[in-house]
Task: structure prediction
Amino acid sequence: RSYRVRISGGIATMNRHKVAEYLKRHAQEWDLDFEIRPAAGTVEAIEMLESGKLDLALVNGLLRFPSAKGIRQVATLTSESMHLLVKSQFSEQVTEDYSNLAGISFNLGPDGSETALMSGALLEFLRLRPDADVTVNRYELDELIKTLEELEAAGPEHAEELRMSLPDAIAVNSTIPSKFVEDLVETADFDLVPIHFARAFAQIPVDEEDLDRDHVDQIRTVSTEIPAYSYGGADPTPELDCPTLASPLVIVARKDVPSEVVSRLLHAIHTGAIARLYQPPPLSKTAPSYPWH
Result:
């Protein structure tokens, strides 16, 4: 028997969607027919699961949604690296001292979004208050992608105006390499800024009063590096391995998704091409972000 399964990998132009497409291609070998549906990010994907519009989703495993009682974890697939990108004219000073983010604009994303939760946690760790210390922009990633597309096609007279319209600093989680990051580096002249505080960031437990609302579970953060020459070609960014933090990219399902679907998907993930590419950790060595399916 073949199963039709609705899955989201988030925004259609970002890497998670590409991961979903790769899963779709290889899950066919197990008679799983994936229909990929877009979502704005983890928050919307969880909402779509809860409302029955999705069966599976690829989500950021650091994010917690206490009201999402019907979500179950299938597997941890891989990890996503935090890319902290700053316009080149500010990157050196921010690299020297993160407090120099004060006084420049930082894209926090729409209230309640994945971007807002992750970027807000970074700023809170650095003791920088949105709107008070840091000028906040609240662009959707789709809006930034559109501006980058316009910038790439613009003539010299309009290009600088478009570049100036972008936030001065942007934080985005992604597998490597990311076309969005590549475009920020090559088209909009952004630099990657190292994140040296990943281990300290992971030591901060969730405050008791935050447990009942959407939050970032920082203790699941791990230290990693963005390899040198990941972006920029002949003018590489970063020039050296760039320290940063990473979060688990997990596959979650509604709890009423048939066990046979989950079993077949697990076989697809842990064997063959998917396992070779993403090297998912064994279930026995995985601390789940959600209860197991």
Q: What stands out?
A: The longest strand covers residues 71-87. Residues 15-27 form the longest helix (13 residues).
